């Protein structure tokens, strides 16, 4: 059994997609990050970094409980545990390269683009330009790579595709002001439509709306999501 700690955001969504694609037995445990539940002593024992997603595998080696946090680590752990969605052995280098390209580039730059366009208390033109331009550059790299391809790695649907889907799904929010956010990236858009049509994606969307999470971006939410901004006021 996998206990899956989640909030309806990109990184948990990609793990949910793996769980739904494989049919692994799991228990979804909501963590309301706008209420600060990720900072509870109980959750910090699962992820000391205080973020979702995280999992507890109650059927780890020797029957032990195994905790895994960070979405890329979880995807690798579960793929190796099940032997699924790892692609061919000869494509291992490509798989790791694209998985970590997403983890170190697409993900964090998307997050910062969202923050400065939607959450920052005051507009910061430099920050907005910096992160939007970098996202466009990352999208360009992906668009070039996906020309004539259905998947990121070889001919197989892998955890790299799942990882990328989690963030490209949020392109309308990331690319604020663009009526068709992927219009300049047709190969990336075609890839997204291909992945997005999978039945498992629909089940992920149902999971992400199955719990009533806090939606207000009030002072409680800001302190919970951006605690370092308030460290000097503690």
Q: Please provide the ordered H/E string of secondary-structure elements.
A: EHEHEEHHHHHHHH
Q: What is the CATH class of the largest domain?
A: Alpha Beta
Cα-atom Rg, whole angstroms? 18 Å
Biggest β-sheet: count, sense, barrel? 4 strands, mixed
Structural class by secondary-structure content: alpha+beta
In total, how many beta strands? 4
Q: Can you tell me the residue ranges where pLDDT is under 50 for at least 5 consecutive residues? A: none
Shape: globular
How many helices in DSSP terms?
Answer: 10
Strand neighbour order, sheet with most strands: 2-1-3-4
CATH fold annotation of the largest domain: Glutaredoxin
Organism: Thalassospira profundimaris
GO molecular function: transferase activity
Protein name: Glutathione S-transferase
InterPro entries: Glutathione-S-Trfase_C-like, Glutathione-S-Trfase_C_sf, Glutathione_S-Trfase, Glutathione_S-Trfase_N, Thioredoxin-like_sf
């Amino acid at each position: 059994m996998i206990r899956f700690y989640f909030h309806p955001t990109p990184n948990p969504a990609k793990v949910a997609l793996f769980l739904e694609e494989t049919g692994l037995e799991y228990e979804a445990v909501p963590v309301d990050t706008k209420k600060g539940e990720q900072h509870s002593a109980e959750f910090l024992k699962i992820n000391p970094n205080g973020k979702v997603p995280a999992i507890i595998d109650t059927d780890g080696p020797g029957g032990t409980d195994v905790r895994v946090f960070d979405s890329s680590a979880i995807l690798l752990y579960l793929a190796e545990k099940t032997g699924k969605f790892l692609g061919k052995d000869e494509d291992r280098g490509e798989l790791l390269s694209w998985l970590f390209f997403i983890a170190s580039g697409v993900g964090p730059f998307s997050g910062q683009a969202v923050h400065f366009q939607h959450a920052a208390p005051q507009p910061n033109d430099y920050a907005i330009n910096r992160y939007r331009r970098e996202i466009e550059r990352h999208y360009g790299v992906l668009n070039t790579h996906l020309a004539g391809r259905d998947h990121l790695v070889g001919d197989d649907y892998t955890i790299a595709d799942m990882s990328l889907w989690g963030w490209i799904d949020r392109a309308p929010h990331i690319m604020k002001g663009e009526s068709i956010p992927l219009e300049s990236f047709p190969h990336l858009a075609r890839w997204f439509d291909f992945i997005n049509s999978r039945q498992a994606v629909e089940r992920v969307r149902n999971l992400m709306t199955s719990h009533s999470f806090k939606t207000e971006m009030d002072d409680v939410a800001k302190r919970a999501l951006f605690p370092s901004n308030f460290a000097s006021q503690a």
